Amino acid sequence: MSQTAQRPAGPRGNSGASGRGSARPTLEEVAALAGVGRGTVSRVINGSPRVSDKAREAVQTAIAELGYVPNRAARTLVTSRTDSIALIVPEAETRLFSEPYFSDIISGVSAELAETDMQLLLILVRNQRERERLSAYLRAQRVDGVLLVSVHQDDPLPSLLESLEIPSVLAGRRSDLEPLSYVHADNAGGARMAVRHLLRRGCEQVATITGPLDMEVAWARLGGYRRALEEAGRPYEEELVGLADFTEEGGRLAMRELLERRPGLDGVFCASDVMAAGAMQVLRAAGRQVPGQVAVIGFEDSIVARHTDPPMTSVRQPTEEMGRTMVRLLLDEIADRGRARRQVVLATELVVRDSA
């Protein structure tokens, strides 16, 4: 497979000193001059991080000397490459624009793609019709790879991506047996850290507000809450578990229900900052002082955590780095379709502020 390119006119190209006259330089000639394999040249051109600095410099020097310019139209015809990737969000636009998690992921993805020639397409999937339209779009091979965020267990998209053999990376996973590549934070460990902090500061009745339990991320954070209680010799009580959906309104509703069931609760671990902000509003309206009477911890350490009153203690997950890492994994899979799938878990840490 060869690639053609238009070579700019210049002394070298017109003199014929190289023996090629005005012929267009090929990818093979770049590889030969750089002293590397053809695949390495392709990875450099496509912006893959899986190239050593020495090889990348040699290829870039050879490209400059030969005046090689990839002909993207020809490459698309030969390789079916589109030089575009899709970032798919199977949520309503209200969540996309109201939750910092999504904007932080997009920021990380965009930053990592900035030095490549890849075009980023943002696709929202809000209903069955849009899901069917996306399915047809993916089957037509309109993108080279897919980044999928907000993974629900009953979502058919991951299975579709797997069956189509499209290079794909998930933000999160469906279970610990996930066959696709994914990147996520240490959700269970972060939740455990938060609840241990509440117990150490003397909280006796620690509640939790979960995300939707059709998402592994919500189960993992609930599991971390439960484990911290068990380690401290405390019982796990369903009355202290409020079910929500990662939204502010969900956090408010769950907090009201928890106060009705257990008015004496004195600690709350929320599975997201947005829900924690909603919970703090309800506590304030109920005359409960934070942290004097009820300590509150969120998860993500987003901009929300720094702007609540009082400022929120939160489990920091490196959301932007998740986006960057997803892109690096995806570019590797695009460059090497036979590459084994990878799973990356990023560390979390507790950021202590006034709410706990």
TrEMBL record:
Entry keyword set: DNA-binding, Transcription, Transcription regulation
Ranges annotated as biased composition (Low complexity): 8-24
SMART domains (alphabetical): HTH_LACI
Pfam families associated with the record: LacI, Peripla_BP_3
Disordered as annotated region, ranges: 1-24
Segments traversing the membrane: none
Single annotated GO MF: transcription cis-regulatory region binding
Domain HTH lacI-type: 25-79
SUPFAM superfamilies xrefs: lambda repressor-like DNA-binding domains, Periplasmic binding protein-like I
Protein known as: LacI family transcriptional regulator
Organism: Kitasatospora atroaurantiaca
